[in-house]
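Many introductory courses stop at the sequence. We go one step further.
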Amino acid sequence: MADGIVQLQPNSTGAKVDTSELTVGANLVERQRVNIADPVGAGAIAAVKGGSIPAAAADPALVVAVSPNTPVAAAQSGVWTVQPGNTPNTAPWLAAISGSGNIAAVKPAATPAASGDTALSVALHPSSPLPAGVNAIGTVTAVGASPSGAAKAGNPVQTGAVFNTAQPTVATGQIVEVQATSRGALMVATGVDTFNAASSQSGVWTVQPGNTANTVPWLASISAGGSTAAVKAASTPAAPSDPALVVAVSPNTAVASSQSGVWTVQPGNTANTSPWLASISAGGSTAAVKAASTPAASSDPALVVAVSPNTAVAALQSGVW
């Protein structure tokens, strides 16, 4: 069947009506196509399919309902039995307790609960009194009776402390475990309240570095500025790198000298035999002194001399210069 249109007045040259062209009797006619659509949504048009084509989930569908004014006849009468299985009272209803997207876990009696199981939170209502009589929720039993002064017997409740190789450091308001040594001795330390220790010692107290008085010297060192003076045995000579104690003679202390008479100062052991060693220097340079047979070099530091203007210089040259 071909598609066709019908021109309408007065807009016979503009808008077009969608039709289907078919033969009715001896006439070729145009049948207008009509769709059931939502008056608001432009794309909400009810789908119409052939009898052999099943409906799909994405098909737009016409919503219909039975009018409340139309009675519906039912052949079922009497008692209606609603049950989860075919045999009454044999299969339980399946139900779940859920809240906030979580469903409480239900396990068989032989399966223990796990920490990851979703659980139903229950609590006693504050207005509900506990049942009369003895109510025990859990039991804590201390066993092993050991009277004071008696030998340890059974399994008495004991106290203990934690041993740590490195002592923990905590801040104000935090909890810290009681510490003990590796042998179980309780570790204690003074805080704001100090320990009060009584002493029965009286009279003269002997303080010495050894067990026998006046036999072991006190160990002491002289140090300043991070350096400690070196102390060596009598047979060990001092080294230039040894830290040394700087001492000076007080200007108020007279130094006695047994030398008297004429003091002879000479460069050698025999008077007037060895010359004094001297050098002429200025500006960081020292004048070179060479043997008589060694000529001067251009790189030798030299003593600058000049003839005094007060000294007459005799000239042997005569005649015309």
